[in-house]
Structure formats: structure tokens, C-alpha cells
Write a structure and sequence with these properties.
124 residues, four-stranded mixed beta sheet, disordered N terminus, five-stranded antiparallel beta sheet, mainly beta
Length: 124
């Protein structure tokens, strides 16, 4: 089986993985009612895949793995939204696995909050 070098998946440098806070309203007041899942802000992941292979992208949070989607290869950018409830506990990681090849890699743990936009680049 073909094994991709570790750098073929997610770039592990902080410059390649950034979390940018999206515009959010004021935080809820203490004792406020929980936010309805339908009205909660969506958290966005933008993946630029510079690798040849399409990649399955997963979110690792709360001790579980959640599939986010497929990032098309050959320098394409894919945008995914997922429920903010998955990042309410703060630290998450993203996992990329190539379709049609062996290997996988993770980002460093990221501090992501509901409503954030996270940009990740997969290097060739």
C-alpha cells in the first residue's frame, strides 16, 4: 500500500492552521436560557487541499470522531459547517485521511468556539 509522508496531510505549522473568530453577538447573560440548536451559530471549517488525493475530514471532539465532509484535492478549497455544540468544550482536532491511499494526520489541538471560522491547509 502507498503510504503518504506525514507532511502530505495536514500542515502542522501554526501558520497553516488558524482559527479566526467570526462576528458574534454579545455573550448570553448569566442564567440565560440555553440557545436552541436551530438558532445557534454554525462553526465553519475551510479546507484548502493542495494534495492530489481527495481527503475525508473529521472533527475530533468530546472523545468522539465526527465526519465533516470530503475535501477535494488539487488545490481546491472546501467549506463545511457543523453544529457549534461539537466545539462548546473548547479544544478540538481535525483529522484528514486520503481517499485511495493509506495514511492519516491530525492538526494540533485548537481552541475553537461556537461561530468561529477555522482555516486548514493540506500540503502536498
Amino acid at each position: 500500500m502507498l503510504r503518504l509522508p506525514r507532511t502530505a496531510c495536514f500542515a502542522m505549522a501554526l501558520a497553516a492552521v488558524t482559527a479566526v473568530a467570526a462576528c458574534k453577538g454579545p455573550p448570553p447573560a448569566t442564567g440565560a436560557e440555553p440557545v436552541n440548536a436551530a438558532t445557534a451559530p454554525k462553526t465553519t471549517l475551510q479546507v484548502t487541499n493542495r494534495n492530489f488525493y481527495d481527503m475525508n475530514v473529521f472533527l475530533l471532539a468530546q472523545g468522539q470522531r465526527f465526519r465533516v465532509g470530503t475535501a477535494t484535492g488539487n488545490n481546491a478549497t472546501s467549506t463545511f459547517q457543523f453544529p457549534s455544540q461539537l466545539v462548546e468544550n473548547g479544544s478540538v482536532q481535525f483529522l484528514a485521511t486520503p481517499i485511495g491511499a493509506a495514511g492519516a494526520d491530525f492538526t494540533q489541538p485548537l481552541d475553537v468556539r461556537p461561530g468561529d471560522v477555522v482555516s486548514v491547509t493540506i500540503q502536498p
